[in-house]
Amino acid sequence: MSEWLKMSAADLGRGIGSGEIDPLQLTQTYLEAIDAHPQSKRIYARVTHDRALAEATAASDRARAGQRRSLLDGVPISWKDLFDSAGVGTESGSDLLLGRVPDQDALVLRNATAMGAVCLGKTHMSELAFSGLGLNPVKETPPCINDAGAAPGGSSSGAATSVAFGLAACGIGSDTGGSVRIPSAWNDLVGLKTTSGRVSLEGVVPLCLKFDTVGPLGRTVEDAALMLGVLEGAPAADLRGASLKGRKFADLQTMALDDLDDTVRAAHDSALDRLRAAGAEVVPIEMPDLPEAMALSGVLYTTEAYGLWKDVIEASPDLMFPAILERFRAGGDVLGTDYVAAWARLEQIRMTWDQATSGFDGVLCPTAPILPPNMERLLSEDDYYVRANLLTLRNTRIGNLMGLCALSLPTGTPSCGLQVLGQPDCEAALLRVGAAIEQALA
């Protein structure tokens, strides 16, 4: 049964459907793996044994009765520690929320439970979700699957590593500036950033409500598609027959290819070559307004984040990791007029982006410009931390600023992801394209 721990969520679901896998045995296998794993306490903030076993028992009964609710009915998944779960601590990676216990599940967790998904527990994350590095000295920093001394990517760090280390079939995270896609890239997973407003944020601890999104981290594009359906309580996108023949992609040149690590550059070039070999057309494209949009992000993100958290933070600032505290406080220096003007200008740039990319099936770039940075250096060298923190989210933030849906896919080079930016509210089309790219990169 140990082979179950490396199977895709979809394959586990098919195994349950065929009677080859019992949901209760499957969940017990995962719980035993979590309890025995030497790094599990760095990955899981809380493991919900009783809930998982009760849900798995019900899924097992449904499977025997031929009454399964979805393909993922009985499949165990993990939840980032900012999704409310009834009677279980939800602290968003921060001691500011120590002991916070909600009385009901977040809507997406209720939807997933109604579709039969088994909740394994809550995973560690960057403090209040405000860093793409995954470094959290206040709580725990999960390990990167490819480098024990490196940061795992965040803020959905535990969500990614729970899957990468075989301690969940899929992880649910959030993405405000890249927090699903970065840990997916650095841990060789598929990560889906949904369009802002598509998936409910009810019962999700916020960072920036105008940018916060919910999305899955899994082994395959199929898993991401199925999990999106489960989160929404809706049918999954149909990926059958996905092909790259006749597809046209934009290869983003502006900013996205600056300061690339040599390994990342080689992985990106190789990925594009494989897409062309599979029949895709790849066209270089410039977006002159992108640097301006990126400059606006500091105003937009920090102002809203500090506006939401100011009172809580300033009541106990000593409880925070200083680098995260500093980032929040930067939002206190922004005038309301500048914030309004920044949003107005960003909306104009979004229209320019939409016009320039409307003829493409997706916009391509490396998910992260750098490889996972060293944790000891992040904690001891300020300049190294600042540079790594800014570069890590640069490419993924494009998707959030432009209001897009986006995928990160493994390229086959460890910790190097290929990002595909889709059109707003076009997740089904993006997932079909992603499935075809996944085949080409395999």
From TrEMBL:
InterPro entries with a match to the protein in the record: Amidase, Amidase_CS, Amidase_dom, AS_sf
Domain Amidase: 26-431
Annotated PANTHER family: AMIDASE AMID-RELATED (PTHR11895:SF176), TRANSAMIDASE (PTHR11895)
Protein name, UniProt field: Amidase
